[in-house]
Amino acid sequence: MDGLVFGLCALFGIAGTALSTREAWRQRYRNEYRIARFARTVAFGVCTVGVILAVPPIADLAESVTGLHNAAKLGAHICAVLWCGSLQLMLVDWSYNHEVLRASLYARIAFAVCVLAAMLPLFIETTDDSVEFTTEYATAPGVTVYLMIYLAYVAITCGEIAFLCSGMALFARRTAHAWTARGLAMSAVAAVLGVAYAASKGSYLVTHYLGHPWPLRAEEIVSPVLAGLAVIALITGLTLAMVGRRRASREVPTSQAA
Fold first, then answer.
1. Phi, psi of 214 (to 5 degrees)
2. Are 82 and 112 in contact (CB under 8 A)?
3. Taking the chain, what is the end-to-end CA distance rounded to the nearest angstrom?
4. pLDDT of 174-233, one tens digit each?
5. Are 109 and 73 in contact (CB under 8 A)?
6. Distant-in-sequence, close-in-space partners of 194: CB < 8 Å, separation ≥ 6
7. Contact 46, 27 (CB under 8 A)
8. What is the DSSP letter of 136?
9. DSSP letter, residue 30
10. How distant, in Å, are the alpha carbons of 6, 18, 153, 229 from that of 59?
């Protein structure tokens, strides 16, 4: 299941990264939304790396090359944090006015740094050849705490992404930017799926701690599917929004000339 889901995500990620890089290069001399363009490209790139590391054969290769057990899991989780953080920065640049933009960016960067600073010591303390950083090893306290920190960050950031995307989608719909509205609406749905992914894994960990977990096999199917759908829908939605913004910017000079 993981290989199929994350392999498909990798294909979408590669295509999205290529399109976003091309668009960022074409718009490199425009100061408007420069942070958003850079953050979107970084987000797509790190997401692609993360989902590639989640493919089981690639994970085994990464561990054999680095000699570090769970190296691929750590890399994928760091990429997920950077992915969510970069998307926040992109949407903040789109949504907030210049007066509060810098403080908003710094706050989200600091949040991501704090999460990584909490995850890394737990990983170093817990990892060994007998432990995997998955829900299957929820009996290991270090694994549970590590995953709960990671999942809490994903849930919080995806919640904000859903809120910002839905608000911008409604605004774009009112201003007749159909492509942008559809892309942002899809992105909002994708972010909700990201929250559902975090809730799926997190609920298993909580119920396991309480002594009444729901079936592990079901969690191992539901969570990857939710994660894969979230990644594919978010990359597709933001790419549509990117195309919509470009079309809108081309229409402005024409309407002004008329």
1. -80, 165
2. yes
3. 55
4. 875 778 888 899 999 999 999 999 999 999 999 999 988 889 899 989 999 999 999 999
5. no
6. 84, 154, 155, 158, 161, 162, 226, 227, 230, 234
7. no
8. G
9. -
10. 12, 24, 23, 21
